[in-house]
Every structure is written in C-alpha cells, then in structure tokens.
Amino acid sequence: MARPIVGIICNHYLMHDQYPVHAGGTMNSEAIAEVSGCMPLMIPTNPDYVTVEELLASCDGFLFTGGRPNVHPEEYGEEYTEAHGDYDRNRDAITLPLVRACVERGQPFLGVCRGFQEVNVAMGGSLYPEIRDLPGRMNHRMPPDGTLEEKFEHRHVVSLTEGGVFHRLMGAREVMTNTLHGQGIKSSGPRVVVDGTAPDGTPEAIYIDGAPGFTLSVQWHPEYAAAKDPVSRPLFAAFGDAARAWSKGQIARPANVA
Questions:
Q1: Closest listed residue to residue 86, CA positions, set 183, 187, 16, 178
Q2: How many other CB atoms sit within 10 Å of the CB of residue 102?
Q3: Phi-psi category of 17—alpha, beta or left, where left has phi over 0 and alpha has psi -120 to 50?
C-alpha cells in the first residue's frame, strides 16, 4: 500500500557559496519515513515553481521545517533590522498561505522551529527578532562549537499545560528538549494556543484553536534522533496517523485533543 505523502518544506541555500539549491536536513526525511511512516517529498519553496493549490492537492500533510532564514518582519507588521537576520521571501510566499489553507481544510501539518514561527505569523502573530536580548531570557541559540550531537543535545525543560494537547500526547507535564533558535513568539495569533513554555517563559509548543485537523508545532527540533527520543516519537507518530487519515479522505484530529 502506498504511504501518505508528506511535503517537507525546503530552504534556499548557496552550495559552495555560488550554486543555488533547495535543501532540507536528512533527519527531517528520516523522521517522516521511519517514525511517521510516510513518504517524504522535498518541496522547493518558490512561487515560480509551485503553487499552494498544487501542494494541497499533491500532499497528505506538510512538515514546516527549521532553517537559518527567518520570516521577514514585514509579514507581521514590523520594519526589517539587522537583528532579524537572513530571510527568504519566496519561502514566506508559499508557507504562510499554505498554513492558513491547511488550518481551514483540516489538512495536517507539523511545525518545527522556523516552521513553528511561520505558523504563528500566518495566524496573525508576531516575533521577537532576538529573544536572548530580552530581560530575563536565556540564550536559546545553537552552541557555536561542538559536534552535531552536542549541538542537538537536550538543554532545557519545556513545561506543558496540565491536561493539554501536548501533555496528553507525551504523557508528561515536563519534557526535555534541545534548543537552536534565536527568534521567538512575541504575540501569539488570535487562534494560537501556547501549550508549552521554556523556564524563561518562551513559548515552545502551540496548536491552533478550533482547527479541524492536526496543527501541532514546536520551537525545538524533534526531528533529531526522532526514533529514539521519547518526546519526538509520539509527536511524529501522531502526525503520521493524521496524514494517513487524510490520504483516506478523513480528517483526524490528534487522539489527545478534546
């Protein structure tokens, strides 16, 4: 039987500083294939190549990945400054309307890091350009040195809402996560429910209130060692279940959602 197709949102890069590519981390494809049980399909996020309508018709779900480029501040009503870092307007042009369309249709998606931020912006929220500069906030950025394992190691607790979506899914009120991001939610969109926070109050887990389908998103990177991590595995497994339901013409909310 054919596996459900999950579109993996790619980022634009220059290979060897001159050759333009669309690329995504192998760990994203691995998590979708091995834990979600779906077929990963890399999506070049450029409106010159694909349309939102084509993507909705071709995929059973979407993984909104992390990436170095940030959502452009104009998308949430602020002026660009150097603190906002690199950006990718072509990705913005695809992902933001795609999020809104998925919410409306009940088509499942999972947001990760930048993808988490995209979901909030798409739903009317805003972002801080650099949360480590805020009083009382910790540095959530990736450690500059060390091995891949050291950069993705667990660094802080995320506290989940008692009886909430993520608590029910993961079976724990507190989970340990990695952290590799500079930006963070400033104001959440009107329908964005913050269901988990870091010790400094930074939102780390969200979903969309009243959405008919799977809309869970996290600020950390659960795709790293997803098959072995007790927090990542149920998240990707539930997402895979939702994509399988969509492929059969059904809309499946996570079993843990009331």
A1: 183
A2: 27
A3: left
Q: What are the φ/ψ torsions at residue 219 (nearest 5 degrees)? A: -80, -20
pLDDT tens digit at each of 258 positions of the chain: 799 999 999 999 888 989 999 989 999 999 999 999 999 999 999 999 999 999 999 999 999 999 888 999 999 998 888 777 788 999 999 999 999 999 999 999 999 999 999 999 999 999 998 888 888 898 888 887 788 888 888 989 999 999 999 999 999 999 999 998 989 999 999 999 999 999 999 999 999 999 999 999 999 999 999 999 999 999 999 999 999 999 999 887 654 444
Tokens of 203: 């939102």
Q: Is 36 helix (H, G, I), strand (E, B) or coil?
A: helix
Would you say the C-alpha torsion 251, 98, 60, 221 has a positive or negative sign?
negative
Tokens of 16: 């060897």
Three-state DSSP state, 15:
strand
What is the DSSP pairing of strand 192-197 with strand 156-160? antiparallel
Placement of tokens 């989970």 in the chain:
175
> pTM of the predicted model, to two decimals?
0.95
Tokens standing for residue 28: 């994203």
Q: Which CATH architecture has domain 5-247?
A: 3-Layer(aba) Sandwich (3.40)
Bridge partners (DSSP) listed for residue 87: 70
Alpha carbons within 13 angstroms on the beta-carbon side of residue 188 total 18
Going by C-beta distance under 8 Å and a sequence separation of 6 or more, which residues neighbour residue 75? 92, 96, 121
Whole-angstrom CA distances from 126 to 73, 75, 123, 204 are 8, 8, 9, 14
Residue 169 tokens, joined = 């899914």
